[in-house]
Amino acid sequence: MDHVNIFVKAIFVENMIFAYFLGMCSYLAISKTVKNAVGLGIAVIFVLGVSVPVCYLLEKYMLKPGALAWLSDEFADTDLSFLSFIMFIAIIAAIVQLVEMIVEKFAPALYGALGIFLPLIAVNCAILGGALFMQEREYSTLSEATVFGLGSGVGWCLAIVALAAIREKIRYSNIPAPLRGLGITFIITGLLGIAFMSFMGIQL
Amino acid sequence: MTTQTVETSKKIKAPLISERNKKLLAEPLNESNPITVQILGICSALAVTVQMKPSIVMALSVMVVTAFSNMVISAIRNTIPDRIRIIVQLVIVAALVILVDQMLKAFVYDVSKQLSVFVGLIITNCIVMGRLEAFAMGNKPVPSFIDGIGNGLGYGLILVVVSAIRELFGSGKLMGYKVIPDTFYEMGYQNNGLAILPPMALIIVGVIIWIQRSRNPKLIDQGK
Q: pTM score > 0.80 for this model?
């Protein structure tokens, strides 16, 4: 039950886009058509689902104060937590590279569709944000961290697909010229965020 | 701490002020503002702007990281192999961010707690990466440093404006001091709770873009 709670919370209540604005840059840049948005969304779900548990293991067995105790007693009070940024970003860059190679080998069609977006995920704030939130909120088991990673990815994917669909429709409306493009996209995202706030306080 | 480093660096390059350098410093404030025109670094810009104090600290941190990473990358730009340049850039930026993070934890601990993960997220802040790719990889260290300062200032300007609006209407304060007098509240004025909530930041930035583009029609999207 706890896992369902974390999953739903990560999708709706603590949505990466609407509650924390993580991954906004690619969110605004790639949301022009639904097709690309779906592709990027799936890639983000995948990378978050893999990298958050890996970062969890890294945090638990290497970085936390006293985490190195399994190696030998000498390290029982070593605190490497100041290294977490550099370790997490290295892990994420490596995983993205790996995902890129796997997708290229086994699903060339998807690889062609994702194109440049796949390597760009490494610098998507949502991925590093997922890892850092996992560290800050101290999830207690590996499965909880995995569920949180997948949930945040699904929430991000939902948000970008919704915005892409709206932007496809809004092309037919008459928007004041200075507001066209970026301006109206910001305001739409704000309104979507207000809609998402109705999920606040949901407990499962 | 951070302000001091910036001031001294300005003094050092005082004789270096040429037309080009001045342009590098001034353009990001308006015509090529990183947030409203280049669409870089929006993630953190919106999340930290509930109050003015954390957003000023954030703006200073981003400025320091952008300026110094620009300088370092530009100094070693000819020795970086092209294929692995993203990883090299990430490592340098991450090292600088760790320095800033430790500094914030030591001197302004409460603000650092408030910023939570967003200090770490400067690493993936698109402003830093974007300027590294677009400017530092092709220019000398000194102009790159100034470009970093300029873009940091442009980013900070939007952050301060948005946070001032949100703090004033959301909690009736500026920098943590009460601005709206009690008589207003007695007459029935109420703080606008919506301004504190995240969606309002997006709408305010949208309106800023609207105002900027209607004053400067060159920036209007021609696409559709």
A: no
